[in-house]
Calmodulin-lysine N-methyltransferase
Amino acid sequence: MTGANTESSESEGERQGTVARRRWRILAEALQRSNNRDASPDSVSTRKFQSFGLLLFEELGQEFYSVRCINSDFKVIVRLLRRDFSPSQLTGFNNTGNVCIWPSEEILTYYCLSNLKIFSGKSVLELGGGMTSLAGMLVAASGVVSKMVLTDGNALSVSNVKVSLQKNSLPVETCARVLRWGVAEEVSPHQGKFDVAMCADCLFFDDGRDSLLLTLLAVLRPGGTALVVAPARSGTFHCFASMCRPHFRVAIVEKYDHVVDQLAQKSARDPHYNHNLHFPLLMVLKKIGTN
Ligand SMILES: C[S@@+](CC[C@H](N)C(=O)[O-])C[C@H]1O[C@@H](n2cnc3c(N)ncnc32)[C@H](O)[C@@H]1O
């Protein structure tokens, strides 16, 4: 082996050691955090399993929080709605995004921040982002995208994201919009405009998957990518994957991150944790076709 090769393999070894140390630190922080779940702002929610402990909140008052994800230094200010919803308000169209930041959004945020190169120079759309659109907000805060549009079909979610956006000066063009999937007059202005679309925990409602698929197809340019994060939840995730196969190259990733795996193993000891309901799977969709 030449000196140069030895040096480069040593620095590669050092780099791997640094990466490994950083991952263990992230995991240790997240484990501490998940031991302390009730201290998180979403302890008001009715969810039994609340989070993987990857998000760090600093309370700023009047429902505002500075939030960062444990794998990144980017921060945004978001308002978390603290409202009680009756069971009937939670069904139909659709207050589920105003209840809390769901674990899928937490995982989408973490995944995006670990893989920012996916977004470099791209126009990006978050669908069904709920009351924070946290993944989109933090990706926008990284400054790597050319444009970020945050959407939900629920007007209260969107007005809340607009309030949050006013508290941040993000380094890229960012806006919040009502965009109900499959509603032509709301979807068509975005036709073919996006390189990347993403959504978290949006596969739950049986009557929503068709329109979500149509919307992804409409908004993505040919060759564009969708990141869909959701629990398996009694076949809903795999059902959506099957629906996508005629239109997208579909990859399903269960093991996308060592830290998340460790947290899921730990969560499995929580009596409230149900892997089928709570573990977010990742689906990466590539729209078939060329520009
Ligand atoms: C379970 S919440 C997830 C919210 C957020 N992504 C999270 O994980 O915290 C599902 C979101 O999808 C939105 N949604 C459901 N059906 C929709 C539709 N047809 N058009 C647009 N948004 C919809 C809801 O308003 C809600 O915010």
Notes: Confidence is low (pLDDT under 50) at residues 1-10, 35-40, 42-46. Strands lie at 55-61, 64-69, 75-79, 123-127, 147-152, 173-178, 194-200, 220-231, 248-253, 280-287. The pocket of S-adenosylmethionine is lined by residues 94, 96-97, 101-102, 104-105, 128-130, 152-154, 157, 180-181, 200-202, 208, 211 (CB under 6 Å). The first helix runs from residue 3 to 35.
